[in-house]
Amino acid sequence: MGAIQRNGELEGYYRQVIRGQLRPGSALVAQAWGMGTAHRKEDNYLYKERRYGTFSRSVLIPVKVKSDKTEAVFEAGVLTLTLPKAEEVKLKQIKVKTKQIAGSKKTETAS
């Protein structure tokens, strides 16, 4: 059966505001809100940047998954989603009947 695993780097985002949603038709939507700063000191200046905002990503999942068994783990700035695949549809064997005409008699055989 197996599972699909997706990883996303969300460093600087808050775990409390990360949302995942599995929509009908197997679309996975991840959303987050966060803020952070970046510092860089060079010879004669200090570069300081603040960022904040939302993040949203939508990914199509090519197979059916068990939505009630889906897991999400946020660790060290990385969100890992594990989506167990739903059971494969079993193939059904179909008996094929052939009709043969022998002279004027019809006979049926199954294979």
Characterize this entry briefly:
The chain is an all-beta fold.
Description:
- With 111 residues, this protein is mainly beta.
- The protein has one domain: Immunoglobulin-like (Sandwich).
- 0% of the residues lie in helices and 59% in strands.
- The chain has no helices and eight strands.
- The chain has strands at residues 3-9, 19-23, 27-41, 46-60, 71-75, 78-84, 97-102, 105-110.
- The strands form three sheets. A three-stranded antiparallel beta sheet has the order 1-6-5, with no helix packed on it.
- It is rod-shaped and about 105 Å long.
Given this structure, which CATH class is correct?
A: Mainly Beta
The strand count comes to 8
Helix content bin: under 10%
**How does the major sheet shape up?**
3 strands, antiparallel
Mean pLDDT: 77
Strand content: over 45%
Strand order across the largest sheet: 1-6-5
CATH architecture: Sandwich
Give the overall silhouette.
rod-shaped
Counting copies of identical and different chains, the oligomeric state is: single chain
Class inferred from helices and paired strands: mainly beta
- The CATH topology name reads Immunoglobulin-like
Domain count, please report it: 1
Distance from N terminus to C terminus (CA atoms, Å) equals: 31 Å
The SSE order reads EEEEEEEE
